[in-house]
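Lecture notes, continued. The same structure-token format from the folding unit now serves as the input rather than the output. Read the line below as a description of shape only.
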């Protein structure tokens, strides 16, 4: 007969302790998530929708942090069509960074939602007009669009970009997800964003993997849009 695992102090093991065979985890799993993202990336957008939905169900919080694919690819040969989108992303990042600084994370969440719905789920172009529409729909001041031309904001974006890269420990694309004070991971890439039970299962996988220092990578072919 298999013995039931027990917690320290002799109490019967349940939940997470029992699932670990009574050994516990290497590190506690925190309830907050840090999400590093470049708003121009369509894969990142889908990850953000999954994460936003599942953390809402769990009552957890997302710390929104900006990163830049243009900064990531500095000095590299990039096809023209990608360079155009990265140049536009620089403008979006300046506005988003200003929104976060002046209006807080909830405002950034709102404008990213409005922007992504238009650019990634709709047929709006990668142009300032789409960003202007998103600001209005998020009930943010129209004059925030002026930040798109303010190069002084780039330094703040680079700081959080570098923070995300440091959490992963090597060069990494968008998005980066970090649980609590644990390491950052690229992804997960989800097409389409899972919902319901599937969304929660994936969330638990990411959280538990983050608690194991020995774990570093898991990958397979991407699904097509």
């Amino acid at each position: 007969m298999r013995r039931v695992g027990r917690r320290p102090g002799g109490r019967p093991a349940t939940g997470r302790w029992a699932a670990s065979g009574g050994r516990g985890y290497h590190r506690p799993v925190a309830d907050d998530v840090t999400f590093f993202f470049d708003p121009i990336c369509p894969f990142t957008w889908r990850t953000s929708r999954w994460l936003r939905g599942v953390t809402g169900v769990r009552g957890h919080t997302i710390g929104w942090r900006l990163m830049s694919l243009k900064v990531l690819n500095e000095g590299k040969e990039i096809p023209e069509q990608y360079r155009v989108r990265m140049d536009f992303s620089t403008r979006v990042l300046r506005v988003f960074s200003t929104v976060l600084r002046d209006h807080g994370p909830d405002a950034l969440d709102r404008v990213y939602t409005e922007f992504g719905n238009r650019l990634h789920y709709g047929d709006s172009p990668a142009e300032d007009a789409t960003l202007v529409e998103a600001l209005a729909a998020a009930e943010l001041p129209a004059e925030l669009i002026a930040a798109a031309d303010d190069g002084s904001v780039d330094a703040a974006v680079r700081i959080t970009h570098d923070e995300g890269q440091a959490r992963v420990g090597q060069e990494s694309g968008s998005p980066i997800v970090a649980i609590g004070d644990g390491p950052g991971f690229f992804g997960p890439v989800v097409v389409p964003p899972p919902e319901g039970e599937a969304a929660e299962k994936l969330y638990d996988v990411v959280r538990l993997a983050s608690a194991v220092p020995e774990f570093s990578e898991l990958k397979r072919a991407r699904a097509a849009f």
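Point for the exam: Confidence is low (pLDDT under 50) at residues 1-26.
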